[in-house]
Amino acid sequence: MLTFLYKLIVGPFYARNAGTFLVIILLAFGFLSAREHKALITAALGSPFLLMLVFVLWGLYTLKTIAYVRQELAAPEHLFLQTFWLVPTTKRWVLWVAAQLALLAPIIAYGGWMIQIAATYRKWDSLGAIASWLFVLVGVGVTAVDYRLRHPNPEGLRLPGVTLRLPYVVFFPIHWLRYEPLSLVLTKVFSGLLLAGVCRLYPTDDYDARLLLIGLLLAILGHSQVGRQLSEFEHRYLLLLPNLPLSWRQRFGRYVVIYGLIWLPELLILLRNCPTNVSIYYVVWLWLTGWGWLLLMHSLAYGRSIIADRWLSGIFVAFIGGLLLIMFGLPIGAWFSIGWLTAAAYWFVGQRSLRVTEK
């Protein structure tokens, strides 16, 4: 029975979120060494605020796993799982605990590392808090999914409905926030902290603006999975969109607005943390450049079935190439022009090719 749960729930969960996990692993362990991770953990063990922040991130991940399992239990093709409640309670809870431990394996592994460091430095209060929180997360997850198993159609509180027409450009941001909050939070937190950290790295007269370009490059690559997610969203919920009589300017303009909304928090972070000797106009120019390159990445990923390993390899090659160009002094104006013009040319050529094919 446990093997059955792993194949039906645990395996598909990791397969569905493989892109997110790849981005997390690349960002967390590709740019930080084990020593730097240990320093961050040590700082969190000595700071209740930082430790609480870690707990909140773990809690969000746990909520994602709970939502996934409850969604699978309600899926039409998995309605036969309702018979699982006939299994004796003790055995059923043991199976749920094993499945939940497998779903929470990433945070349990990281929590185990934190516990080991806490024991080394004799931080017994932090050690107890981490172990207790992991225990609570597993317990909450098991309780939530077992309750949904026993109450497949719960009656909730119904509030008066409010009708509000939303424009198309906010469909995907709202979907991303509602159904993939962990991906949204991790993407924006990484991008925001990276840009803020780069801005504060050298707050002196000899600040090298190329550092901002490197930070921008990493922040853009941190959004590498967004184009695929938007493409999957439209192909699942907006099947008629490709057949609508829209010009390439209209289609391109819609994506310009969508990515402008997604990229807006980075503008606020750059303006708030702008180095003293860097012009505010340069910071805005930098943000506009990132906007264009997000559109270009979307154009490369949209409507294509790309193998995750190949896409990740392309991201790595893009990082190395972009880093070399920044080191050799490619100006911000060139980055701006390449991003925006290439993205616009892609939609113009694609629309013309589509018209030729129809004829």
Describe the global form. globular
Distance between the termini: 56 Å
Mean pLDDT: 79
How many helices? The count is 15
Give start-end ranges of low-pLDDT stretches: 354-359
Helix-residue proportion: over 70%
Biggest sheet, open or closed, and with what strands and sense?
none
Structural class, by secondary structure, is mainly alpha
* Radius of gyration (Å): 23 Å
3D structure, described in words:
- With 359 residues, this protein is mostly helical.
- It is built from 15 helices and no strands.
- The C terminus is likely disordered.
- This is ABC transporter permease.
- Keywords: Membrane, Transmembrane, Transmembrane helix.
In short:
This protein has 359 residues and is mainly alpha-helical. It has helices at 2-16, 18-30, 34-45, 48-74, 89-103, 105-120, 124-150, 171-179, 181-199, 210-221, 226-237, 248-272, 280-301, 308-327, 332-358. α11 (226-237) crosses α13 (280-301).
Topology:
Elements: H1 2-16, H2 18-30, H3 34-45, H4 48-74, H5 89-103, H6 105-120, H7 124-150, H8 171-179, H9 181-199, H10 210-221, H11 226-237, H12 248-272, H13 280-301, H14 308-327, H15 332-358
Keywords:
359 residues; mainly alpha; 2 domains; 15 helices; 75% helix; 0% strand; globular; disordered C terminus
